[in-house]
Design brief:
Strand content: 15-25%
Number of domains: 3
Oligomer: single chain
Distance between the termini: 55 Å
Radius of gyration: 48 Å
Number of strands: 13
Number of helices: 10
Order of helices and strands: HHEEHEEEEHHHHEHEEHEEHEE
Shape: rod-shaped
């Protein structure tokens, strides 16, 4: 019993066997129902042809009844029909009666005619005609026990009347096939939906193996094992970045403290500037390490207006020290969006810092908060060349490799935060000079 159950489960997990099994069921149902329907239609067509033929014969016989001048009726059976209604042929018979039911003419009720046994199966038709002001009913009957095969009539009329049913049957079979295949590959669709959620920030997701067909299971298993290896590689890389950044912080702090004990001079100021730049790079590496491990709560919301206000307040001293200004514009009301406040603050801070770096002296950087969940950061700098608008978001990319005031990580952090928040980031040049960076986030539902 156990071996049989295992074999049944093994076969049912096979995609091919699922399709074959469901097709067998569908074909079995059609094989049972379709012959019954066709048999009923065939018999109905034969009966209809028989009734039409007998009625036509009755009408021909009615035309042979003639009224005489003395008021009597005569009946002259055509030579072409004498053989059909003869006792020797024994298949057809007719009775002609008046309105009171009296028998006027008959093909079988006369002296010497054989008497039909009640057990014989008789079927026929009748027509009524008014002859000389008197109603006359002509009855024609056929002995079904001696019916001839009327193949030509059946074939010519059967397909004309019944052929239309072929289209609905094919449509039903097509719909059945669609349902069968949809049910059979439903686990694959579910696995593909799970695979679409896998990304650098979601390396823990694996393809489901429940109800996966046996033929596909090796592929799913191999993909999951590959994802395990990739996750291990990402984890090692992230851990290395975070550890390296943490290890560099302490030496830089000690080095800054020692340099500050030296006397004033150009060399001391240059060393402090270099250490500040190195500290900024280390801080950005830590941000990247944290960003790579960030998993957002779908229900988490943040006030974009408050985040931008905090960034402007924090970075204003830096702008003033460089004889530049920074202003907050746009919506005065809270703008609630889906996102993590800390990560949003880091992204907008990097945009603002980048704008202050490139804007001209004695000009202002604008941070404009829109009620639609957008943030625009504008500067008065040289702008961004068309060919560089995607390159600037790559890690460690810098237009001028000789400059030592940055490592090209700030805008890559902005892109990473945007990707994690399902947001978009775009850059374009302003007509009057300078660049405008735009971040667009999803608004949170009211009451969230």
């Amino acid at each position: 019993m156990a071996a049989s159950a295992r074999a049944g489960s093994f076969a049912f997990k096979s995609l091919i066997w699922r399709i074959v099994f469901l097709h067998i069921l569908a074909v079995a149902m059609v094989a049972i129902v379709l012959p019954l329907v066709l048999f009923w239609l065939l018999n109905s067509e034969i009966d209809q042809l028989h009734r039409d033929g007998m009625r036509a014969q009755a009408e021909v016989l009615a035309e042979r009844i003639v009224a005489q001048p003395d008021g009597s009726l005569t009946f002259n059976l055509p030579d072409s029909l004498r053989g059909l209604y003869s006792d020797a042929y024994g298949r057809y018979q007719y009775d002609i009666r008046d309105d009171e039911g009296r028998l006027l003419f008959s093909s079988h009720r006369r002296a010497g005619a054989a008497v039909r046994r009640p057990s014989e199966t008789i079927s026929g038709a009748s027509v009524t005609r008014i002859i000389d002001g008197k109603p006359v009913r002509v009855q024609v009957a056929e002995d079904l026990a001696h019916r001839d095969v009327i193949i030509d009539d059946i074939v010519s009329n059967f397909f004309r009347r019944v052929g239309w049913i072929t289209i609905p049957i094919l449509l039903v079979l097509l719909a059945t096939d669609i349902i069968i295949f949809r049910r059979a590959i439903a686990p694959l669709w579910k696995a593909s939906e799970e695979a679409s959620n896998i990304g650098p920030a979601r390396t823990h997701i694996r393809l489901p193996t429940k109800q996966i067909p046996r033929e596909i299971m090796p592929l799913v298993t191999a993909v999951n094992e590959a994802l395990d290896r990739l996750e291990d590689g990402f984890r090692v890389q992230r851990q290395f970045t975070a550890d390296a950044a943490h290890q560099l912080r302490t030496p830089l702090t000690i080095l800054r403290t020692r340099i500050e004990t030296l006397g004033d001079g150009a060399a001391r100021q240059a060393l402090l500037a270099d250490i500040e730049a190195m500290s900024r790079i280390v801080a950005q590496l830590l941000e990247i390490a944290e960003l790579d491990t960030l998993v957002l709560d779908p229900g988490e919301t943040a006030d974009l207006r408050a985040v931008c206000a905090e960034v402007v307040g924090a970075i204003a001293p830096l702008a003033i020290a460089q004889h530049k200004d920074i202003a907050l514009k746009g919506s005065d009301a809270p703008v609630m969006i889906h996102g993590n406040s800390e990560m949003l603050q880091r992204a907008i801070f990097n945009l603002a810092e980048n704008a202050i770096k490139f804007t001209a002296r004695d000009t202002a950087v604008e941070v404009d908060v829109g009620g639609d969940g957008s943030v625009r950061v504008r500067d008065c700098g040289p702008g961004i060349a068309e060919a560089e608008r995607e390159l600037i978001f790559q890690r460690f990319w810098r237009r001028d490799r000789q400059r030592s005031d940055g490592a090209g990580l700030g805008l890559s952090i902005v892109r990473g935060v945007a990707d994690d928040h399902a947001a978009t980031v775009a850059v374009e040049n302003l007509p009057g000079g300078g660049a405008e960076f735009t971040l667009r986030f999803r608004l949170a539902e009211k009451g969230a």
